[in-house]
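testing teh design pipeline on a random one, pls ignore if ur not involved
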């Protein structure tokens, strides 16, 4: 048995597990587009990252094993507080995916293997994303020609969900696609103009979903993509000043005309509660009051998910990572959540330029904003693409610095 475990832990086996995860990540844009139509795809999208994530942590990141033993113990204790185990477990899997993703990105070997696969098969990524965007554009065109919108009665606006289950899911999945485009831009893979066009299309479709919080996230990710060309943009502006001013003016006019017509702006102007968070502040107040009045055991180990639904008056989760984890899994799990995210951010900030440090800190603030106002860990279709961000900032910038030193 010891020999068998030893073989699993050797470098060759390590590469196999990381390669499996990297290959899986190549297909994520396709998988997140198919899971609405093929049920088993959804199981694959959550099953593979949760299983491989746990295996990678326990086999190759020994310093983190104790933390995950605590997590497993907390999950076990939490089962004694629930009357609906299936519903309770619905939140366990995405939380495991979230935590393992943010822990795995601290392993540079994992990022390097993902990078190698992405560089080798970058044409496959481009073709996949191009087809997905074209299909969504086709649906968008048909929807507006036929005036077909399934959610107009709910939000009183025309929204876009495309190939995805609903507007919020569509928004998070467009954010995932934008992250892949960010890789192409950062790695200088594919045609620059083509990458920019794909980014613009993805951003426009994202704005049409009406899901405001993930749209704000996607817009920041798009800005990160554009900033990868900041040297080229600066050079063009210096060389062609008049043309640059003209293009900037035209761009501002186009944005000023189109942006007010997007579902993002329309949803912001037509909120049910008349405020930005659409009544979520009331839910947070009720949830916090419930937590304060709870028993010591509930504060430490969590509550029944059905009770959380009752607090919110309707059959919905908290739409807030902090409150959901605090109420469902307890204060210890919330501490682990923050420790995991902060540790990953600090690891990424090492050896970065001042500019990149600023971008990374702002990105994490955006993540916190999304987690607080709409939820982040509960959307694994987006979370499983976050390692790509760490890849492009950890490896490519490091390589550029090494070239400068030489």
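output:
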């Amino acid at each position: 048995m010891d020999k068998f475990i030893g073989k699993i832990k050797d470098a060759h086996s390590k590469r196999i597990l990381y390669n499996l995860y990297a290959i899986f990540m190549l297909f994520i844009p396709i998988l997140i587009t198919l899971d609405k139509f093929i049920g088993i795809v959804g199981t694959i999208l959550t099953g593979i990252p949760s299983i491989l994530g746990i295996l990678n942590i326990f086999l190759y990141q020994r310093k983190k094993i104790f933390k995950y033993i605590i997590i497993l113990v907390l999950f076990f204790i939490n089962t004694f507080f629930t009357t609906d185990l299936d519903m309770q477990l619905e939140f366990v899997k995405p939380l495991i995916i979230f935590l393992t993703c943010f822990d795995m990105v601290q392993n540079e070997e994992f990022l390097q293997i993902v990078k190698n696969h992405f560089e080798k098969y970058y044409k496959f990524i481009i073709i996949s994303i191009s087809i997905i965007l074209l299909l969504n554009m086709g649906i968008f065109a048909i929807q507006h020609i036929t005036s077909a919108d399934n959610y107009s009665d709910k939000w009183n606006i025309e929204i876009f969900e495309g190939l995805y289950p609903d507007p919020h899911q569509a928004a998070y999945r467009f954010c995932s696609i934008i992250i892949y485009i960010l890789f192409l831009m950062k790695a200088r893979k594919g045609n620059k103009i083509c990458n920019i066009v794909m980014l613009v299309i993805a951003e426009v479709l994202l704005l049409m979903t009406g899901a405001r919080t993930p749209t704000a996230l996607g817009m920041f990710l798009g800005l990160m993509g554009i900033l990868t060309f900041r040297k080229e943009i600066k050079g063009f502006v210096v060389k062609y000043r008049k043309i640059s001013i003209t293009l900037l003016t035209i761009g501002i006019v186009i944005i000023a005309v189109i942006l007010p017509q997007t579902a993002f702006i329309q949803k912001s102007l037509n909120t049910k509660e008349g405020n930005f968070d659409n009544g979520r502040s009331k839910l947070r107040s009720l949830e916090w009051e419930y937590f304060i009045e709870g028993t010591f055991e509930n504060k430490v180990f969590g509550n029944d998910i059905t009770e959380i639904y009752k607090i919110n008056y309707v059959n919905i989760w908290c739409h807030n990572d902090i409150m959901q984890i605090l109420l469902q899994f307890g204060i210890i799990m919330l501490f682990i959540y923050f420790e995991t995210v902060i540790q990953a951010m600090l690891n990424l900030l090492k050896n970065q330029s001042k500019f990149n440090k600023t971008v990374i800190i702002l990105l994490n603030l955006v993540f916190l904003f999304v987690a607080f106002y709409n939820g982040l860990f509960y959307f694994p279709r987006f979370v499983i693409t976050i390692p790509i961000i760490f890849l492009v900032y950890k490896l490519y910038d490091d390589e550029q610095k090494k070239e400068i030193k030489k």
